[in-house]
Amino acid sequence: MAEKIDIALAGNPNCGKTTLFNELTGSNGYVGNWPGVTVEKKEAVWKKDADVLFTDLPGIYSLSPYSPEEVVSRDFIISGRPSAIIDLVDVTNIERNLYLTTQILETGRPVVVGLNMCDLLEQRGEKIDSKRLSKMLGVPVVEVSALRSKNLDALVGTAVDSGRANKVAQGVKCFSPEVEDALQTIANTITGSCAPDLLRWYSIKVFERDSAAIEPLNLSKQQLEDMEKVIEAIERDRDDDSESIITSERYEWIATVMDACVVKAPGKLTVSEKIDRVVTNRVLGLPIFIAIMIGVYWVALVAVGTPATDWVNDQLFSDGFFVSSSGQAAFEEADEAWQDAHYTDQISGYIAAAEEAGVDTDGVQDAIDADPQTADDEATITEFEDAAEKAGVVATDVPVTDADGNYLDTEGNVITTLDEDGNPVLAEGQELDVLPTVTAADFATAVDSPEPDQHDYDGFVDSIPNAVTGWLTDAGTSNVVISLVVDGIIGGVGSVLGFIPQIFVLFVMLCFLEDCGYMSRVAFVMDRVFRRFGLSGKSFIPMIVSSGCGVPGVLATKTIENEHDRRMTAMLTTMIPCSAKLPIIALVMGVLAGGSSMWWVAPMFYLMGIAAIIISAVMLKKTKRFAGEPVPFVMELPDYHMPSIKSWALHVWERVAAYVKKAGTIIFAAAVGIWVLSNFGLAGWEGGDGSFGFLQAMDGAPETYMDYSILAGIGGALSFIFMPLGFGNWQATASTISALIAKENLVSTFGVLYGLGDATENSVSMWQGFANMFTIAGTLHVGAMCAFVAFNMLCAPCFAAMGTIRRQMDDPKWFWFAIGFECGFGWVVGLLINQLYELFVFGNFGFWTVVAFVLLALMLFQLFRPMPKWDEKDEHILDNLAEEPVA
Ligand SMILES: Nc1nc2c(ncn2[C@@H]2O[C@H](COP(=O)(O)OP(=O)(O)OP(=O)(O)O)[C@@H](O)[C@H]2O)c(=O)[nH]1
Ligand SMILES: [Mg+2]
């Protein structure tokens, strides 16, 4: 068996290390077209030889680390002593990339330089003489393209050979003779204190006075003082500090390498630069970004998403659907004929007339609707018919309705204006369409003409809940189990799965924007906006990641050097809607508009997230804990490119798969839990005996039996918190709490509470169920609904993201502060929305209106007051400001 070998992938941020790593190992680490994507190291073996282990490292600009993830890379290279290092160099940025290369060559390891993105060279009209470069660097150089899988085996092969032969890179003599002399003197002093391979590395570190790096050498005071003299002499001579001397001499040397090995294109604008002139334009940049986001959400939620999700919710999970068009046509024809005969109107009209005439109509409608009808039902109907006939009931003036139950006028138009009791209000000259007199015989005909049943026609596929109910009933399963499976599991998990089409479409677009390079421009554009509010564009990168999932979003804050900004970004970034919050947004869209006309609602929530972050940041920046200037934001803009279909598809798949996996695990478990809590309880209704049990099967259980469940008890006890926000009912409270486990739970909890899986007569559609929670006295309370969504968007994220924040903060005090702030902020925003809506739409003014205004005034004060001056002595703000590592 061949000897095992471990190879580190090192290089600048965004040079393609993770792309290479994925390609070599078949992993699917996160790739994005902006710097700082990878923040933790990751290991995997080569697809072609399990003895070769690769480590993907966070990108670094130099081996003098500033931010936490840079430390990971430096430590791994210096202390981890990999068998070989592949130093990946982005050829479109070769000059800056070689800076790190000169340092890596000094680490006393076998090194192979991979010139990545060679596919872009030709397009840019550039050429690199890699043979010559290899000679100048003293290590092998291989031209590759990680994205297009070009020459990768040659690269790995060379690295494996160098590693096995332990061909240690010697470093380049890139410094001036005086500095080289000084380094030699230092080397003579410290030789013996370190491994011979690292002598040059440590000599340079001593020269730079990098005290952290040379700590392991344990040099004596005398040694340090001797060397200090040598260093000071050169500093005096050059009138510069030793660290800068090293840096500038490295760059001077790189310039000579560039001259010798690189043929640059004549200075005309590349395509990327031309595009950037527009999209990063001072004036146009932000509007273009907003327009793109609106477009993305519109396509995902309205154009493609809504029809797809409607199909899933209405057909797959509710009514079933046809796979044969002739079967469907036959059914539709029969159904239309049946509707035209107005049987429903005749039945309800006749029953109403009978009731007026004093005939007992109890349970008649139910008996007629029952499917299948029992002997009891048939008896009830016959009894009613006899009684009505005896009483001589004849119904007149029965209004005609269409298939959806709307009243029609004589012209056949729908009458849309209704009074409080739901009776039609007629306009001038309009007349209500009524049926001819309905006699007992007409009634009997209507009852005997059952509504055409889809099941009787060709090519009909039943909805999942109907089919499952059917199987379970046939198998003689008990009602408890049927309810658990159909209402709990199918209703809960199914309602979450119903949003897959939208999630999929959204990610197809977001992943494209990320991978082609546009999102890094947005970070650049947002930097200009953020900077005014004391945040840096660096804080925007985690937000882009958070639009997929908050967990990697919080991790991405590691690239922020300044501790204040890092903490603040970690606690605010989850306010951006993630994929799990998308169904909530989609629900509101569905309720408000059934889609199209309210196209702006969904992007509004995204922009609300950004606005909430900015407002919070401004308020927090004016407190002592977070004060400080934003770090300078220097980021190179990578060239635009067409993402490879493979990596694009992989990205989308990963996120959709994560969503599905969550539905099958956490959401599944939570749905079962919610079902148990909402179906078991005490029979506390009138006439109930107060015993504990499965509510719907208990004697005399009302239709609203869930009001007596355990969940209603818990939700009810906590609902006072949300009363001022307008959604203080137990259902909304319970949903909000369950959403803390995973945000999708909000939707799945509805699914269970409104029995969406249960396709019987009185079940309601998803939109309707959601609207019901906010319907007071027949009117939809839009303010309460928006407050509910706003609170759930902005409050603490799901458990997984909270755990990540906790690890990231590394301090329980900070963690609880973060969670408290998020919940408090979400609550205040919800309060403002609801109270302002009530004031302006309903004209209600009360205690909570006053509270809302006071809180608003406090927020405005904190937002607009001048930046307070802190005593800099007790607050080491400036000390925390790291320098920007980019040269
Ligand atoms: N055109 C082209 N693009 C590439 C190539 N290799 C990688 N990319 C793109 O470069 C971008 C950055 O790739 P990553 O693999 O995330 O870079 P990284 O070095 O891991 O970046 P960090 O994790 O931030 O250090 C992605 O958009 C890749 O698709 C290549 O050979 N050619
Ligand atoms: Mg990476």
TrEMBL record:
Localization, UniProt: Cell inner membrane
GO cellular component terms listed in the entry, alphabetical order: plasma membrane
Single Gene Ontology MF annotation: ferrous iron transmembrane transporter activity
Membrane-spanning parts: 283-304, 570-592, 598-620, 665-685, 705-725, 776-802, 814-833, 845-864
Coiled coil, from the record: 217-244
Domain FeoB-type G: 4-165
CDD domains referenced in this protein's UniProt entry, alphabetically: FeoB
Keywords linked to the UniProt accession: Cell inner membrane, Cell membrane, Coiled coil, GTP-binding, Ion transport, Iron, Iron transport, Membrane, Nucleotide-binding, Transmembrane, Transmembrane helix, Transport
InterPro entries xrefs: Fe2_transport_prot_B_C, FeoB_Cyto, FeoB_GTPase, G_FEOB_dom, Gate_dom, P-loop_NTPase
Membrane topology: Multi-pass membrane protein
Name recorded for this polypeptide: Fe(2+) transporter FeoB
Origin species: Tractidigestivibacter scatoligenes
